[in-house]
Design goal:
Neuraminidase, alpha+beta, 2 domains, Serine Threonine Protein Phosphatase 5, Tetratricopeptide repeat, about 20% helix, 11 helices
Length: about 450
Amino acid sequence: MAAALAPDNALGIRAFADLHACSDLALCAARYVHRRSACSVLETEEFLALAPETLAQLLDSDRIMVPNEEVVLDAVIRWMQHNPDERQQHLGALLEHVRLPLLAQDVLVARAAAEPLASAGLRVKDLVIEALSFHLLRPERRAAAAAASARARPRQPPRAPKVLVVVGGQAPKAIREVEVLQLDASPPRWRRAAALPSRRCRAGLAVVAGKLYAVGGFNGTLRVRSVDIYDAGADAWAAGPPLCARRSTLGVAVIGNVIYAVGGFDGASGLASAEAMDAREGVWRPIAGMSTRRSSVGVGVLGGRLYAVGGYDGAARACLHTVERYEPAADAWQPVAEMGARRSGCGVGVVEGALYAVGGHDGPTVRRSVERFREGAGWAPAPPMASARRNAGVVTHAARLYVVGGDDGAANLPTVEVRATHASTSTDTTPVHRPHFACTLHT
């Protein structure tokens, strides 16, 4: 029966398997619903025939793969309206399993003002108020709220294999090309993905809720505020909310659902300012600025806090060895231990509770050295790379650092170095002949 699974029979096969204690078949049907066809299953006649208790169990799962929580809300309302006289009474209990705080604020307000939510009972109104209150929190406080409430936490469906995505760059001018490396393939191979809508280099990348954000950068003429969003399922880009400030050579990182854009260069001077956007809200807002202007800054997240590592202070004409740490709950930066070397254009990655500063340069000297930071222990040397490189992309996968491309001060580097926590080896994949690209992991 597993071979016959389809969106219009998966729920029925799962019920049959549960009834007859066919655990392997039940697991296979559940995986089919969660991983492959949730949206299609929610539109079937079988779904509309579910008992309230069975529907609540389905909605409660962290494993449902849906593009957004509004799909789940629509499914519950459609189920209720299939037999409103008998099912209206269950609406409040079922909405307890819908993650209303994950809806965009304007969508939530509109849905709350429309039927059937507008005239629903007290329990429904309490859930709507809870969700609206979540949106009134400062973005940096929402992570703590999400940890305290399952309804505010994103669903975590099974993930596809990780891929490494390289976006834009210089070759030698700003380019639109996007390349993807399937890390779990043997051997790993690069392939092309949909090109950026416009030329972009020196940008930052972030991944939130399965969407990839290309943030700021340089288009070959101007430093930009623009943000482009990539949907891997559709292999397509769309325009996103613009930054508050023009930023190239910025640092970008994610804590929870909040994307942070830190420092950079606006075409006239280096920036100490920073801004943040909750991806569910879609609006950038300024946050506290750093104590130092930092372009070509490396950024990483360790212990729920944001680290701005090295960079270049144009006012002082100096590459930096200083490091600042941002505490989201306090909206404040503070200095932490300095690195042993000055590093502008270094890559930053986090592996097994340690933050790594990889390569970079100090004026004419491009470094192959690496430093490792642990909270409470400060910085210490780590094994060097095989090649000196700056402006490389750094990502983490399977407890390894991938150091991608960059340049050595004389030429662009096509190599990818793969580093375990105790060693470093160099692997030459198909070429990435450009520096100043943005690099991240995606599923």
